[in-house]
Amino acid sequence: MKSFKLLTFSAGVGLAVAGASSAAYALPIDVTVYEYNGNSLGTDANLSTLNNIIAAGSSSYTKYEFGYTGLNDINWSNFDSQTGPNLASQFVNSADITSFVGGASAETAFLISTLSVQGDAKTAIFNINGLLSGQILSGSSVSHDDGATFIVGGDPLVTNAPETNDAIDTFGTGKTYSSAAFNLYYVEGNGAPAILDVNIQSPNLTTDVPEPSTWAMMILGFFGVGVMAYRRKSKVELRLA
Questions:
Q1: pLDDT at 216 over 60
Q2: pTM of this prediction?
Q3: Which residue among 18, 119, 189, 190 is least crowded, i.e. fewest CB within 10 A of its CB?
C-alpha cells in the first residue's frame, strides 16, 4: 500500500467517544467511518453529528474501523467517481492501514462501500483520533471539500464543520502538546471529489502509544485488585462457615 498519512485530534468530550475505540489497537491512530443513508443524521463534521448517528442505532449506519500509523501528511483528494466502490477502495489503496476490526471480511466490506453519493443520498463521517506530542506552528492547514473539525488537547484548531467546497483552514498556536488527545472529524458527502489534505508545521510532532512498561503496570494493577478482591471474599466465607 502507498503511504497515506492521516491526522487526528480530539476534544475533551469527543475523547469519550473516540477513546473507546482506539483502545482496540494500541496504535497511534484509530479511524472509525460511519456510512449512512441521506443526510437526516447530519452532515456537519463534528461530535454532535457523530452522537446523532450513534444514538440512531446500528441499524441506521454501517461502521468501519481500522488502525493507522501515519501522521501529518494526509493527502486524500480528487476522487473522480460519484458512486460505487471507488471512494473507499482508493482510500484503502492510498492509506497505510494496519488492521481492520473484523479482519479481511471487514476490509472487503469497506472496499465495496459507497461512502458518498451526489445529493447526499449517501454520506460518511470519519472520526480520526489518537494522541500526539510536539509543537504546532503557524502555517499548518487542513484542506477539505466538505466539513472538517480539528481539536487537539481540547483546543479547537479548525471548526469549519458544515459541508463546503474546497476550503483551506490555516492554524497554528505555537503551543507544545504532550500526549494530547486529538480528533479529526471529516464528512464526505454529495459525491466526488473527496478532499482531505492535512499539513502540520512542526519540528517534533509524534504520535503516542502507551509504553510497554505502562501496559505491564496496568495489567499487574488489575491483577492485584482481582487477587485482593478474591482474598477478601475468601475470608468472609471462612467466617460464615
A1: no
A2: 0.75
A3: 119
